[in-house]
Design a protein that fits this description.
399 residues; mainly alpha; 0% strand
Length: 399
């Protein structure tokens, strides 16, 4: 089998994983805040379950990356679906027992799966020729289109299926994770060579983190993902709080997730043609446009448009930053660099998610005031990422 043929086969498997297994993330982001609103002793803590999913992802990114560097991608992905199934089971138990603490524990375990899903995009490049790598990343991310349909559909079908709201939803998530071992049995990514005792593979981490391209890629990836999560996490609460139905919230999140992944069919081509840095910059501009639309009012159409722009901006910013990162480190450095990147990215996402519920529920006298606070909070971080990107592009090139 040629390198390109093997890379394409792996991409197909990773696309299916993103589509089927990844559906649980849209489920969690739709239901987590709504179930949290029911279980939490204080409305300011409503989005804490979603925040703990992100925290679990941030805390396990580096250990999971090191595991995959030593044992291979298959081992890490199988461990993650086991954690995803266990997290859903604990969350379901928390809902059944009306226990917020149990629900939080299940959410934390779910974060292990989320961390692994973040590595699908990197795994797509492990066996890919350099010119195929941007398209491989984009195609894997495009698998989220199916997850955008499967996840919200599961919510609509299962949220009221039992007397206890959302209990059946988490049981369905257990079923999704059980598909994982069958998918990953067909993954063909060689295990990295064992490190030679006493020899450090690649540059020391301190030197890696002084690389301008790596630092800016991490900043842009973190800001793109964190701001998307900041707004998305509070969206179901804002929609319902403004008098609309939970099904409206599910439809808006579904449109958002579609917008996150639909551009992936051509994002790789745009990166190849115009460069990753320009596509990241375009993504930051679109994120700013999403915030402006959200601040303009609370009609359903404005929620829809803001969340669609939010998804497109995330796609360009995150895939562009991922491409920048994969081009800035050597193959033997990938475990440490990718683990550190996702620790930083999901650490930022955790803080954004944690802030989301507080900004929405506890920063004004109305839901609209809270929603405005959420979207205004985007501004300083967009300035940070945009400034870093401009600095990188304008600095003298190293010889």
């Amino acid at each position: 089998m040629t390198d390109l043929a093997r890379a394409r086969r792996n991409v197909i498997i990773l696309v299916l994983a993103q589509a089927i297994l990844g559906a649980q993330m849209s489920v969690v982001f739709i239901v987590g805040g709504l179930a949290g609103q029911i279980l939490a002793p204080n409305p300011c803590l409503a989005t804490l379950p979603v925040s703990l999913v992100i925290l679990g992802s941030a805390l396990t990114a580096r250990p999971l990356s090191r595991l995959m560097q030593r044992r291979g991608r298959q081992a890490g992905f199988l461990l993650a679906v086991l954690a995803g199934a266990l997290g859903a089971a604990v969350s379901a138990t928390g809902i059944w027992q009306n226990s917020f603490l149990l629900f939080l524990a299940g959410s934390l375990l779910t974060g292990i799966y989320m961390s692994a899903q973040g590595f699908y995009r990197f795994a797509a490049t492990d066996t890919a020729p350099e010119d195929f790598a941007p398209r491989a990343i984009s195609w894997v991310m495009a698998g989220g289109l199916a997850s955008a349909i499967i996840g919200p559909s599961l919510v609509r079908l299962t949220s009221d299926l039992t007397a206890v709201p959302f209990l059946a939803t988490y049981v369905a998530v257990i079923g999704l994770n059980l598909i994982g071992p069958f998918l990953f049995a067909f993954l063909d990514i060689p295990r990295p060579p064992a490190p030679v005792a006493g020899v450090v593979a690649g540059r020391p981490m301190g030197q890696i983190l002084r690389s301008p391209a790596i630092i800016v890629a991490m900043i842009c990836g973190m800001v793109s993902y964190a701001l998307m999560n900041l707004v998305m996490t509070s969206t179901p609460l804002a929609v319902v709080g403004c008098g609309y139905h939970a099904s409206d919230a599910a439809n808006i999140v579904s449109a958002h997730v579609l917008a996150m992944f639909a551009p992936s069919f051509f994002t790789g081509h745009l990166i190849a043609r115009f460069g990753a840095e320009r596509i990241v910059g375009l993504g930051l501009v679109i994120l700013a446009m999403a915030g402006a639309v959200a601040l303009s009012g609370i009609q359903l159409e404005q929620f829809f448009l803001a969340l669609i722009l939010l998804g497109i901006g995330w796609n360009f910013g995150y895939i562009g930053a991922t491409t920048m990162l994969t081009r800035a480190h050597a193959p033997e450095e990938r475990g440490r660099v990718q683990g550190m990147n996702d620790l930083i990215v999901f650490g930022g996402v955790f803080l954004a998610s944690l802030s989301s519920g507080g900004l929405l529920n506890c920063s004004g006298g109305s839901v609209q005031a809270g929603w405005n606070a959420v979207n205004l909070a985007m501004l300083p971080f967009l300035v940070l990422a945009g400034g870093a990107l401009i600095w990188l592009v304008m600095r003298p090139k190293e010889a």
